[in-house]
Design a protein that fits this description.
mainly alpha; 12 helices
């Protein structure tokens, strides 16, 4: 691994590269916060893909792309005279120190949960902090992740199930209400009840220390692998998927399951 001096030198090298690209590259020169935003979202998702696969080499590469985007926004901030990368780093360091009084102050926190609970109180005290407990949850978060974060923040101020086993009664209640609305054929109410049901399932996952977004992504990948297996074998057989019976596809699906072990 590299020394602290080597790390600082590498960071400075990337700053120099970005500075030159901003001046000399036609594409880099024309970028704005608005134009970069979609690319940034894509880069973060690519990092998430690498993390899901635990591909160390790819993680390293994608982290570089994300860091570059952070530095690019800071460069734009420098050009407008609002802030630069030093301001970004110092503000983050100041925030971390303020939010860790059990490390930098006299407070104590012996468990990760105690740290989380104190964070919510600290954030409300910050000058530019959250105005309410849930205001710190970004509106643009994907719905599954947002639901999980909302529930976490509520828990950190004591609003949670006392016994996690009790959540299953709520899950069943929401499922029954969803079924009832589906039977009535009311699409709008069914949509609301589906949301309530999904929220309760996410709540159950959280209580059992399972990440629903990670779990769902594993299932997405598993389904994709198995469906690709069906498609590949249909191509080999010279029979389009649209001409296969459900029984034939089920048979290939089960073969794919067996190959996975």
């Amino acid at each position: 691994m590299h020394t602290r001096e080597e790390k600082l030198e590498a960071f400075g090298r990337l700053l120099d590269v970005l500075d030159r690209l901003r001046k000399e590259c036609p594409w880099d020169r024309k970028q704005t916060n608005e134009s970069l935003r979609p690319n940034t979202i894509e880069e973060v998702y690519e990092l998430c893909d690498a993390l899901m696969k635990n591909d160390r080499r790819d993680i390293c590469k994608e982290l570089g792309d994300v860091i570059m985007h952070v530095m690019f926004y800071a460069k734009i901030g420098e050009e407008t005279g609002d802030f630069d990368i030093a301001d970004v780093c110092n503000k983050e360091a100041d925030k971390l120190i303020f939010r860790h009084p059990h490390v930098y102050g006299e407070a104590t926190a012996n468990t990760a949960q105690e740290v989380l609970e104190s964070w919510e109180q600290i954030k409300l005290k910050e000058k530019d902090g959250n105005k309410s407990v849930l205001s710190g949850v970004p509106q643009a978060l994907p719905s599954v992740i947002k639901a999980y974060r909302i529930q976490e923040k509520a828990r950190n101020v004591g609003f949670d199930w006392e016994d996690k086993e009790d959540v299953w009664e709520k899950v069943q209640e929401e499922l029954d209400e969803l079924k009832a609305e589906l039977m009535r054929g009311d699409k709008e109410k069914s949509t609301h009840e589906l949301g309530d049901f999904l929220f309760s399932v996410i709540n159950a996952a959280r209580l059992y220390k399972l990440n629903p977004d990670t779990a769902l992504e594993h299932t997405n990948q598993k389904f994709t692998r198995r469906f690709n297996y069906i498609e590949e074998h249909s191509i080999k057989a010279g029979k389009p998927l649209t001409e296969m019976t459900l029984a034939e596809m089920d048979e290939l699906w089960n073969e794919a399951k067996k190959e996975e072990g």
